Automatic annotation (TrEMBL):
<dbReference type="GO" id="GO:0015292">
    <property type="term" value="F:uniporter activity"/>
</dbReference>
<keyword id="KW-0472">Membrane</keyword>
<feature type="transmembrane region" description="Helical">
    <location>
        <begin position="258"/>
        <end position="276"/>
    </location>
</feature>
<comment type="function">
    <text>Mitochondrial inner membrane calcium uniporter that mediates calcium uptake into mitochondria. Mitochondrial calcium homeostasis plays key roles in cellular physiology and regulates cell bioenergetics, cytoplasmic calcium signals and activation of cell death pathways.</text>
</comment>
<keyword id="KW-0999">Mitochondrion inner membrane</keyword>
<keyword id="KW-0109">Calcium transport</keyword>
<keyword id="KW-0406">Ion transport</keyword>
<keyword id="KW-1133">Transmembrane helix</keyword>
<keyword id="KW-0496">Mitochondrion</keyword>
<keyword id="KW-0732">Signal</keyword>
<keyword id="KW-0407">Ion channel</keyword>
<feature type="signal peptide">
    <location>
        <begin position="1"/>
        <end position="25"/>
    </location>
</feature>
<keyword id="KW-0813">Transport</keyword>
<dbReference type="Pfam" id="PF04678">
    <property type="entry name" value="MCU"/>
</dbReference>
<dbReference type="GO" id="GO:0005743">
    <property type="term" value="C:mitochondrial inner membrane"/>
</dbReference>
<keyword id="KW-0106">Calcium</keyword>
<feature type="transmembrane region" description="Helical">
    <location>
        <begin position="227"/>
        <end position="246"/>
    </location>
</feature>
Amino acid sequence: MVLRKFFRSALALLHTVIQGPQSDCFIIVNMWLPKPKDYKVLCVKLCGNLKFYQSHFYGTVVPPDEVTVNYRHGLPLITLTLPSRKERCQFVVKPMLSTVGSFLQDLQNEDKGVKTAAIFTADGSEIPASTLMEILLMNDFKLVINKVPYDVQCPKKEKLSMEHATQMENVKSLVHRLFTALHLEEFQKKREHLLLEKIDHLKGQLRPLEQIKAGIEARSEAKTSRLLWAGLALLSVQGGALAWLTWWVYSWDIMEPVTYFITVANSMVFFAYFIITRQDYTYSAVKSRQFLHFFHKKSKKQHFDVVQYNKLKEDLAKATESLKQVRHSLYLRMQGKELNGKN
């Protein structure tokens, strides 16, 4: 009986300490045993170093600003974060039809906050807008949006065999020919409309320049004509002076060496003109050169841009020539339809 009370008193004050095998954490259990076989846990608390009970999780979450390229259903999918909305957006790319310029245009249309966008190679060379996306996605590149660069890593595609590549090229050529045959007339009519609009726009830009140019040409032509008449008057005075000195003042024996040296001096002047201008001294060449000299001088005074005018004239000539070719093709196509209808 005494032994039984002793064990009850000892267990009432017992603190059972359980230590984990690989940690510094202890579990202290306070137990009260009023009766033998009646165990009751009063409290359980954790103490010590809790770092060993923290869980660490690792993943492959894409950073919010990273530009990724994936393939879905055989088509490239470019995922990026829009600058204005800070949202992830996916762009489906058609490699054989889309170009770098069309992709950048789609990006700017999707987010009006994209002011500037360009694509560069890994070594910093800018990629032209006419480059096909199929060629761009062969290597890693750098996408710059609003002067913020993004390094883009393209997944490597399996190389096609020679036979499969040849078949793909044949399919591309066949599709291109079918598209041309089915949409040629529509394409030519659309091109004719665009060329007409371009010609009208160029003519509208040239109209005020033509008026300024006409005024400058008129004044330059008048000044050139006055200069030519002044040259004729100078030669007439020279001939009259030599005749007066020969018959009225001196004799021919005295004036002959004078006329000789005057002729030599004129020859030296003409030769110097050729050395400076690299042109023969002809009256038409001298007139054209002097006209251009007056024209450019007056153009600067009136702020007439000769380079812009020449560029507009060249663009107008090219557009007019392209329009003639398109209309000629449409005319031949119409003739072919009429012959087929008669047959």
